[in-house]
Design a protein that fits this description.
The chain has helices at about 5-25, 35-60, 80-85, 135-155, 160-175, 230-245, 250-270, 290-305, 305-310, 315-320, 340-355, 360-375, 400-415, 430-445, 470, 485-490, 520, 525-540, and strands at about 130, 190, 220-225, 420-425, 430, 580, 585. By secondary structure, the protein is mainly alpha-helical. The relative contact order is 0.11. It is about 40% helix and about 5% strand.
């Protein structure tokens, strides 16, 4: 592509070179006839005017046309190439005619038949064919968040319609997992399919190594009637998607109707979805309080209903969610811990709207926690270890670290695009650029600045991905449950490639082995690949960071006018002071309302 500014300068310089020859006064020999001189000047002026008009017309005709509304797509790069196929390989159900993964086909069309329900569609979790609705809902929420905030970048990459189709493929399925037209429900579907030991005789999604298109064994459906975590995450997924599809009024209203139903269910029927459930072996949930904050935040942004903000901002709820703890695990944004994401969203609300009383106290605490989390990500701080290659170890030595790295990179970039000027980490002040540099370094590690590429493009990438579909040839031969294991155990490279998919990643010392039998190295999962879309493909494609637009995620939020806080309560402090007051600090005081440390100049 040519540079428009350079092209204009070249033409303008060429015109300048010609102009002096045309406009320079014509030299004459001395004459005594003034009439001839005037005549010649008139002829010269006419010629100059004509030639200048022709020149200007030519220049205008050859100037590049500036199209402000319909810019041409950006040239493809490593970030945007993966967008096209990153999640399509995980689709379940009847695929659209324009599906772009050549080795995939229709699969598991009878899901839900044991309940006389249609539960086809959605996404397989990882290298098997189980549909776990808890991580799948989180993946859809994360994708919707990126589209809400960065739709212009998707559009510039030519991928906006595609990513919206990707989200709708997931939300259409989630709407099938409960009675979305009812006002109240008493159950939701938690998963379709079942895992088990590979050595077992009972065919299931782990003991069999088959292409999803060839599955012929029974796929049971698991339901729950007390699963607050799952239902609140589903509400977050549907609420965020309703903002994505706000121009499709009918579908957006359908999503909102489902949101309100399933979130009410989450609040009324308390419990963890993974208790006494096989999901505990794969996606065990540790709490539902963080999903309440996360879900309520997205419902507020989707509907503008202030009651949801009041819930997300409730001190008791924030406390139970661990919002004021300073444990490292609470700073890692993941499919199990939504609190860091909710805190970032609510911090941006504070930055843009300054809602004041009665929300300021908790929002300010969330803001502080966000700053602590961002400080812990920076290389000058030792909260988390780093590998020699530069990867931050957010899983603290456990496998599958890359999904957490990507989520942290996304949050860091998101904050770098906000209106905050910077923050202090101890005595050191950091600008927003520090967050963007952190995000770029971590994503650069994943895309190649490491001992081994972790995604499916480039010159070097894993060739033995732990995934049934790409490891079995698409040769019109149906391999049985046990017959397919020959391909799982093969030392040959996969015959098919999941273009753009990220595998589980290295261990804490940059160690990585391209082994199909070790899923902790080579298995891609939907949660990690949603993060792959969220962080590099959107936030970092393009050199400049466009700021957060308050008319995107906050489009349904009405202007906020702080209420007048109530007058302070009268003091009721009885002192027994056997010791002196020194510099305003009470030493050895005993009183009913005195807390540690005690500052008699501080009423709080």
């Amino acid at each position: 592509m040519y540079d428009r500014g350079a092209s204009f300068e070249i033409e303008e310089a060429a015109a300048d070179d010609r102009r002096p020859a045309l406009l320079r006064p014509v030299e004459h020999k001395t004459t005594t006839k003034k009439r001839n001189t005037i005549f010649l000047w008139m002829i010269g002026a006419i010629l100059v005017a004509g030639l200048a008009t022709a020149l200007i017309s030519s220049m205008v005709k050859n100037l590049p046309r500036h199209r402000h509304r319909h810019q041409p797509p950006l040239p493809p790069d490593n970030y945007t190439l993966a967008l096209n196929k990153a999640l399509n390989a995980q689709r379940s159900g009847r695929l659209p005619e324009d599906d772009n993964v050549s080795w995939r086909g229709d699969s598991c069309l009878k899901d839900g038949s044991s309940l006389s329900e249609d539960l086809s569609g959605g996404y397989y979790d990882a290298g098997d064919a189980i549909k776990f609705n808890f991580p799948q809902s989180f993946a859809m929420t994360l994708l919707s968040w990126t589209v809400v905030e960065y739709s212009a970048k998707y559009e510039a990459a030519g991928e906006l319609n595609h990513v919206k189709e990707t989200i709708k493929w997931g939300t259409d399925y989630l709407l099938k997992t409960f009675n979305n037209s009812a006002d109240t429900i008493d159950r939701v579907v938690t998963q379709v399919g079942r895992g088990g030991f590979p050595s077992g005789t009972d065919p299931n999604d782990h003991s069999c190594w088959m292409r999803p298109e060839d599955i012929d064994y029974e796929r049971p459906v698991t339901e729950c009637n007390r699963c607050s975590d799952l239902a609140a995450e589903m509400a977050a997924a549907l609420a965020s998607a309703s903002i994505v599809f706000k121009d499709s009024v009918t579908y957006s209203h359908q999503l909102i109707r489902g949101v309100e139903t399933v979130f009410q269910f989450s609040r009324e029927r308390r419990g963890l979805y993974s208790i006494e459930n096989q999901a505990a072996n794969f996606y065990n949930s540790t709490s539902y309080w963080d999903e309440f904050v996360w879900g309520a935040t997205w419902l507020y942004y989707a509907t503008g209903n202030i009651s949801y903000l009041e819930l997300a901002n409730a001190p008791a709820l924030a406390t139970r969610a661990g919002a004021f703890e300073r444990r490292l695990c609470d700073r890692v944004f993941s499919w199990d811990n939504k609190l860091p994401g909710a805190q970032v969203l609510l911090t941006c609300l504070r930055i843009f709207f300054s809602p004041g009383y009665p929300y300021e106290e908790i929002l300010n605490e969330f803001h502080k926690q966000v700053e602590l989390s961002m400080c812990s990500f920076l290389p000058n701080h030792t909260s988390f270890n780093r590998t020699r290659g530069g990867m931050i170890d957010l899983s603290q030595g456990q496998p599958r670290n890359l999904q957490y790295v990507l989520n942290a990179a996304f949050l860091a970039h998101y904050l770098s695009a906000s209106d905050t000027g910077g923050w202090y980490c101890g005595p050191d002040f950091y600008t927003r650029d520090a967050l963007r540099q952190f995000a770029e370094k971590q994503i650069g590690y994943i895309l190649g600045a490491n001992p081994r590429n972790m995604v499916g493009f480039g010159d070097h990438y894993p060739k033995h991905v732990h995934h049934r579909g790409p490891s079995i040839p698409n040769d019109n031969i149906k391999y049985s449950c046990k017959g397919g294991w020959r391909w799982r155990n093969s030392k040959k490279s996969n015959p098919n490639t999941i273009v753009g998919a990220m595998v589980a990643g290295p261990y804490k010392h940059d160690g990585f082995e391209d082994l199909r039998e070790n899923y902790n190295y080579t298995e891609p999962a939907i949660t990690g690949n949603a993060g792959l879309v969220a962080a590099p493909l959107v936030a970092l494609s393009g050199k400049e960071s466009s700021g957060i637009d308050r008319n995107t995620v906050f489009s349904a939020v009405s202007p906020m006018y702080p209420a007048e806080p109530p007058p302070p309560a009268p003091w009721n402090i009885r002192f027994f002071c056997p010791k002196m007051h020194i510099l305003g600090f009470e030493l050895g005081a005993v009183g009913k309302n005195v807390t540690e440390p005690t500052n008699i100049f501080d009423k709080k």
